């Protein structure tokens, strides 16, 4: 952006002259500098890429830049949480900002470094939804936030606490965002101090320099001058204008509201009925994102109450049929509601192929994008091979990948297909047809036996076999009958008792 398009040609002049919220910015800068110099606790600046966190990063950078070099005595860590399913255009903007800070900070002799944290591979969105079959997140089952946002940032902060004893977490939280946010800020504020106690991390304190600012004042700051590390916030402004949305804040505890309110966040978010942020981007020219929106809508469709039983197994991952009962304190009460389990394997396989095809199409359109990591594919494959209800005996994931990317080779983990192959599956399926014994039950019993093979002491194998036999096998109707009629409920348990008695007899 050309200099004349700003009200102020440089950030330092802006800070010297401007007044925001009835307070001179120079006064706020002095406060930030005073708190920074007061002790040796390093700072962790939370950066989500949105308007509020961009202000915080800018103010912190500017405050340090205006300090004499000898007073910049401790490091500032900028941390951004990348869930790996962030809205693509937001990901690009965040990466550019982090890269710019890491390039310019050493030039300006500022002790600041920017870091992006990601969830563990086995805790990503796709590893859970496609791998384990977790249902798409809803308001009542929002399993994604803690795994994908809270835990990575918390681990980063705890690492600094372990190294330095205490840290100060600098956030862009504002009271005007919501009544909930205002209450959380007030609840943890330390009397007589600008700092607050972190709600869940010991030895971590919070500092919120713009907690009293309005949204208009945030934009006034962002658009009045160049960023202190160079460049402008025009891309950020255009992104908000195009989507008519806000950013998903850096989440550091469970008190932070969900991103399910049309804020920028994960493009896969199904907590809301309509993703107005992506819809806005598509309507303002980002047409290439329409297939992502349609894929997201498909996941949301699967989460609707009337569709759950179509998409999801009737058994939970524990292997048992679960009910919501009329009296939670009485297991013998009449079942009132059947709770479905993970997604059926066929839907997970279909969605994975569609996701890979989406990624390939977007790449062929000239965009460097990764919708699902190759490490995630490895994790999903392991989950499929060991699925408690529908083990992927044919090891279908490598085939699915090669159908979409025939020229890309992945070094799949060898010798991890377990004890069963396609011929085994066909044999067990035939036995199920002729003998009436569920193939999956036989597989689990053999798998349990193999897990104890080679051990000098096989203590616990009978308990393990009993746990397998006590699961709900057969079709849903059979399981419902057993639960409805107490005398049928223990049929597999009786088989386990018989096995135990026979083994104990042999050992006498």
TrEMBL record:
Gene3D superfamilies: HUPs (3.40.50.620). It comes from the Bacteria. InterPro entries: PAPS_reduct_dom (IPR002500), Rossmann-like_a/b/a_fold (IPR014729), Sulfate_adenylyltrnsfr_sub2 (IPR050128), SulphurTrfase_DndC (IPR017598). Coiled coil: none annotated. GO terms for molecular function: catalytic activity. Residues 44-224 form the Phosphoadenosine phosphosulphate reductase domain. Signal peptide: none annotated. NCBIfam families: DNA_S_dndC (TIGR03183), PRK06850.1 (NF005316). This is DNA phosphorothioation system sulfurtransferase DndC. The lineage of its organism: Bacteria, Pseudomonadati, Pseudomonadota, Gammaproteobacteria, Pseudomonadales.
């Amino acid at each position: 952006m050309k200099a004349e398009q700003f009200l102020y040609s440089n950030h330092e002049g802006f800070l010297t002259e401007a007044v925001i919220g009835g307070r001179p910015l120079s006064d706020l800068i002095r406060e930030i500098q005073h708190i920074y110099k007061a002790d040796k606790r390093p700072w962790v600046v939370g950066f989500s890429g949105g308007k509020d966190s961009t202000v915080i990063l800018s103010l912190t950078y500017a405050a340090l830049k205006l300090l004499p070099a000898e007073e910049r005595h401790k490091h500032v860590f900028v941390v951004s949480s990348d869930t790996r399913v962030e809205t693509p255009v937001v990901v690009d903007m965040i990466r550019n900002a982090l890269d710019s800070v890491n390039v310019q900070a050493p030039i300006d002799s500022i002790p600041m470094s920017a870091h992006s944290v990601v969830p563990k591979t086995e805790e990503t969105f796709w590893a859970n939804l496609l791998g384990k079959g977790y249902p798409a997140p809803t308001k009542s089952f929002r399993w994604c936030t803690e795994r994908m946002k809270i835990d990575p940032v918390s681990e980063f902060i705890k690492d600094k606490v372990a190294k330095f004893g205490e840290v100060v977490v600098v956030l862009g939280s504002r009271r005007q965002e919501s009544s909930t946010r205002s209450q959380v800020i007030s609840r943890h504020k330390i009397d007589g101090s600008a700092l607050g106690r972190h709600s869940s991390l010991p030895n971590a304190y919070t500092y919120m320099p713009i907690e009293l600012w309005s949204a208009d004042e945030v934009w006034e700051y962002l658009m009045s001058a160049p960023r202190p590390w160079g460049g402008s916030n025009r891309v950020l402004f255009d992104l908000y204008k195009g989507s008519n949305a806000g950013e998903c804040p850096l989440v550091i505890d469970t008190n932070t509201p969900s991103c399910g309110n049309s804020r920028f966040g994960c493009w896969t978010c199904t907590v809301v009925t309509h993703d107005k942020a992506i819809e806005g981007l598509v309507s303002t020219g980002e047409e290439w994102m329409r297939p992502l929106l349609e894929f997201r809508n498909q996941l949301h469709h699967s989460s609707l109450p009337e569709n759950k039983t179509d998409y999801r197994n009737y058994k939970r991952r524990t292997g048992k049929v679960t009910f919501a009962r009329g009296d939670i304190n009485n297991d013998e009460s009449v079942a009132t509601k059947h709770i479905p389990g993970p997604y059926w394997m066929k839907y997970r396989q279909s969605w994975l192929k569609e996701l890979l095809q989406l990624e390939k199409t977007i790449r062929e359109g000239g965009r460097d994008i990764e919708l699902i990591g190759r490490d995630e594919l490895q994790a999903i494959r392991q989950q499929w091979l060991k699925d408690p209800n529908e083990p992927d005996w044919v090891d279908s994931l490598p085939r699915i990948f090669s159908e979409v990317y025939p020229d890309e080779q992945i070094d799949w983990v060898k010798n991890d297909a377990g004890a069963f192959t396609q011929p085994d599956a066909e044999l067990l399926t035939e036995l199920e047809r002729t003998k009436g014994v569920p193939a999956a039950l036989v597989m689990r019993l053999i798998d349990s036996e193999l897990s104890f093979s080679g051990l000098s002491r096989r203590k616990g194998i009978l308990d393990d076999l009993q746990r397998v036999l006590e699961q709900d096998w057969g079709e849903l109707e059979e399981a419902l009958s057993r639960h409805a009629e107490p005398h049928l409920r223990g049929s597999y348990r009786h088989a386990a008792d018989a096995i135990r008695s026979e083994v104990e007899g042999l050992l006498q």
